[in-house]
């Protein structure tokens, strides 16, 4: 993959975030998602790559663009797998809440797991706790392992988890263990990435979210030298069959290398609304400000990019020439 693709990807998530931010707090999650998807799709056409969407907005018959199998890019350049989530946290944008991001990941062709659209149980940590967690171990054992790896007491450990009834038991176990919790309304990609950054105050992510987002989270943590493990959680026989058709045993622990193969991948995320790690888009009349995290697994480079975009010169967020 070309190193320069990193900066190109920033342009894509910036455009998606700015487009979506115009819908912040307006209670219209589909409009927020459509605006980001369209902006993302438009900028993709200008990028020198031959991309195939492996994680996108849905199957070809359900999504008008960024559907699974769609070819992206200007038609020359490296062949890559593309995973997109134009708005990770549509409810967050609709409510003007925390931590909505426009996010995408790419890897060499064939290297991203084509995760089915179903639930995945997840656990994620930053670099200090690599090799110490196990999704099949108890919650308290994982919390103890993270506390030890980070040289702190279990009371100082902060777990993050999406606030859902299905997580009542895990939340109880975390509390019984004496650890603290940051409940999030949505957006477990940001939750997973946050575990690798000290300033977020989050040490470990637990809980069930979407499998496609698990693959994107795994790319992010691979770039950061952290760890992500997932297990598909089919909800019915049809989903169970889909796992088998993909050659995935349902109880198999998907390690980071199963989710994203090889040592190279690029991850980019731009804040739509404010979060612990990324500021949201600021609309200032004639210009917009953006805040983006972009990183590459092969080099381990992590960059934060602040953008200032002229809405006069680039009203559609993309220069056509
Ligand atoms: C959401 C969303 C997550 O999974 O929770 C979703 O916020 C699935 O959970 O970020 P629900 O069906 O309970 O809403 C994610 O999209 C991704 O993992």
UniProtKB/TrEMBL annotation:
Pathway: Carbohydrate biosynthesis. It comes from the Bacteria. The lineage of its organism: Bacteria, Bacillati, Bacillota, Bacilli, Bacillales. This is Fructose-1,6-bisphosphatase. It comes from Planococcus rifietoensis. Keywords: Carbohydrate metabolism, Hydrolase, Manganese, Metal-binding. It catalyses: beta-D-fructose 1,6-bisphosphate + H2O = beta-D-fructose 6-phosphate + phosphate. Its cofactor is Mn(2+). Pfam families: FBPase_glpX (PF03320). GO terms for cellular component: cytosol. The keyword Hydrolase applies. Gene3D superfamilies: 3.40.190.90, Fructose-1,6-Bisphosphatase, subunit A, domain 1 (3.30.540.10). PANTHER family: FRUCTOSE-1,6-BISPHOSPHATASE 1 CLASS 2-RELATED, FRUCTOSE-1,6-BISPHOSPHATASE CLASS 2. GO terms for molecular function: fructose 1,6-bisphosphate 1-phosphatase activity; metal ion binding. SUPFAM superfamilies: Carbohydrate phosphatase. Belongs to the FBPase class 2 family. Mn(2+) 2 binds at residues 85, 88, 213. The keyword Calcium does not apply. Mn(2+) 1 binds at residues 33, 57. Substrate binds at residues 88-90, 119, 164-166, 186-188, 210. GO terms for biological process: fructose 1,6-bisphosphate metabolic process; gluconeogenesis; glycerol metabolic process.
């Amino acid at each position: 993959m070309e190193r320069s693709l990193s900066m190109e990807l920033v342009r894509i998530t910036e455009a998606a975030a700015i487009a979506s931010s115009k819908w912040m707090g307006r209670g219209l999650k589909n409009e927020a998602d459509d605006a980001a998807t369209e902006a993302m799709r438009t900028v993709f056409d200008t990028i020198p790559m031959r991309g195939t969407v492996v994680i996108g907005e849905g199957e070809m018959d359900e999504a008008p663009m960024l559907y699974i199998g769609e070819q992206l890019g200007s038609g020359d350049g490296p062949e890559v797998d593309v995973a997109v989530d134009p708005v990770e946290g549509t409810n967050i944008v609709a409510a003007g809440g925390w931590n909505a991001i426009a996010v995408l990941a790419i890897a060499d062709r064939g290297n991203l797991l084509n995760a089915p659209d179903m639930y995945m149980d997840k656990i994620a940590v930053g670099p200090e706790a690599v090799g110490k967690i196990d999704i099949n171990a108890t919650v308290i054992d994982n919390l103890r392992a993270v506390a030890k790896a980070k040289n702190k007491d279990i009371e100082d450990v902060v777990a993050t988890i999406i606030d859902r009834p299905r997580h009542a038991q895990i939340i109880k176990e975390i509390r019984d263990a004496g650890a603290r919790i940051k409940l999030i309304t949505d957006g477990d990609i940001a939750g997973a990435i946050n575990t690798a950054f000290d300033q977020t105050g989050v040490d470990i992510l637990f809980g069930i979210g979407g499998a496609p987002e698990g693959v994107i989270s795994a790319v992010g943590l691979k770039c950061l030298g952290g760890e992500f493990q997932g297990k598909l959680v089919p909800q019915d026989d049809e989903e169970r069959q889909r796992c088998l058709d993909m050659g995935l045993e349902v109880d198999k622990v998907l390690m980071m290398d199963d989710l994203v193969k090889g040592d190279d991948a690029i991850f980019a995320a731009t804040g739509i609304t404010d979060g612990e790690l990324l500021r949201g888009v600021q609309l200032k009349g004639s210009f917009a400000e953006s805040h983006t995290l972009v990183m590459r697994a092969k080099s381990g480079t992590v960059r934060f990019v602040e953008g200032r975009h002229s809405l006069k010169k680039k009203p559609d967020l993309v220069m056509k020439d």
